[in-house]
Fold this protein.
Amino acid sequence: MFGRGWVPLCAEGQIAKPGDFLAQSVGGWSVLGVRDKEGAVRVLRNACRHQNMPVAGQPSGHCESFRCRFHGWTYDLQGKFLSAPPPVAPADSSPGLNDLQALPVHLRGGLVFFAIEEAPVGVLPSDPGQPYSGTIVTDIACNWKVCLEHLLGSEPTLFAPVLTMRRSGAATLVEQVVPHTFLRTKLFTHVFGDAVEAHKASAAATKEACERLQAARANGTPAADGVLVAQFHKKLDEAYAGNS
C-alpha cells in the first residue's frame, strides 16, 4: 500500500539547515531525510551498504557525515561512500557502487515526500500558505488504521494513505501517521501559522481517543460510519487485493 505513491517523511522545517537529518521507519522502510551542504533535501535508505545496518542511529540531529557504528563505513550528506577501515573496506571501490541508496524526493506543501518506485502518482497537499511553526510528536498505543479512522472523523482532507490536512483556528494542521508496530503508531502534527503550544492539548486528546478506540476495536466494536472512513477502507481493500 505504501509502495505505490509518495509517502510523507517529515516537514521541511524539521531539516531546515545543512547537516540536519531525521530518520525513521515509514511503511516498513528505514529511511532518513537530510539537507546536504548545498541546501538540497535528500532521502536515503538508512542502511549501510556493508551489512545493511543503520548509518543514522538517532531519530534526528545534525552531522557532517554518516558513519555506521558497527564497522565504520562513512558517507557524506548526499549518501556518497567516503571511507571504511581497511579490514572491512569494500572489495570494489568503483565510484557509486557503495553509495547509500537514494530515493525519489518531492517537496510539496512544506513537507518532504519520498517514493520507493519511480514516478509515483497521487494527490499531494497544496502549500498551507503559512509559515511552519513546529511539529508535535505523539506516541499512541494503537494500530495506524485506527488512528486514521479517528482523524477522518473530523472530515479533513485525506492524502493517501497516511496524511491529513485540516484547519484549526488560525492554523493549518498537517497530521502524519507513521506505523511502527501493530499496536504502536506515531502521530506527527505539523503546525503551520500558529504557536505549537496551542495544539499540544489537542494532540494529547487525539492520543486518548485513539487508544480508547483501539480498546473498543479489540472488544469487537466496528469502525464508525462515515464517507471518508468508507473511502479509506476501500483503499485498504484495493491494496490488500493487489498484494494477494
